[in-house]
Amino acid sequence: MLAGLLGFVLGPLGLLYTSTLLALGSWILVLLAWPYLVGAEWRMWGLRAAAAGLGFWWAEYRPPLNGWPRLLMTLDRPGKRKALLAGLGLLAATSALSRVVTYTRTSSPVMLPTIAPGEVVRVRLRFDPARSVQRGTLVVYQLPSSGGRALSRVVGLAGDRIELRRGLLFVNGQPSDDPARIEVLRAAQCLDERLVLNNQARLGHSGAVQVPTGHVFVLADNRADLYADSRSFGPVPLEQVVGLVQPRRQSRALKAEQCRLEGSP
User: Fold this and answer.
1) pLDDT tens string 175-203
2) Is the same domain home to 72 and 115?
3) pLDDT at 21
4) CATH code for the domain in which residue 206 is found
5) What is the pTM of this model?
6) 188 and 115 within one domain
7) In a domain, 226, yes or no
């Protein structure tokens, strides 16, 4: 019973009480399944229940390990000291991985049609901004005003002249939007040509805005509503870019009601 309780409360770490081999295997499976668990509370409860059932079953009906490699048999019952060391190792490995890559579930239509609300995206946290941040890169960055974080597309680098005309992006005087993405937005009436900031590269600027050194210009893919991006607060310092995002899919079909924030007309 204790084995099941520890599995439910601590997940793979709780399984160390039963078997280090079982805990290691469960930890690897959780890592592989993590993109499907993020932000889904019922799945996390399901994971806890599965760990509890696995711990109870292993403790009560331990499968025979005869003929298994000696290392695996040792890992099954390593003793308290080795189990503690294994637990610390799992915690250290988890902490190290969380500093390199993480997953997050989006909640806003800001990046439609590229990323839908509720979609889980992979965010790389270790990167060289000078090399990795280019035009078209999807980034997570700190908002200058609130200190919160937002997701947008980098559309301009240092020295670029950015302009918006009727919702369309021009960089150094040249059209720079992905035609397929714009076609999807137009078909769903998700490109508001009358929106003031869809005709200004920055709040209060009627012409082009030049991106200063050490900054990038970020812009939402969705142009149906006013979303937090460089149109409202200007270019973002590179040091405030905290992650690189890799979308899973290309532009998808939309409906007009998907494109706006709740409460927008």
Assistant:
1) 999 998 898 888 888 888 888 888 888 88
2) no
3) 74
4) 2.10.109.10
5) 0.78
6) yes
7) yes
Residues of the chain with pLDDT below 50 are 263-265
User: pLDDT at position 257, please?
Assistant: 65
Look up residue 220 and give its two tokens.
Answer: 């939402």
Q: Are residues 88 and 139 in the same domain?
A: no
End-of-domain residue from the set 98, 131, 147: 98
- Residue range(s) defining the domain that contains residue 66: 2-98
| Cα 66 from Cα 57, distance rounded (Å) | 18
Return phi, psi of residue 124, to 5°: -85, 125
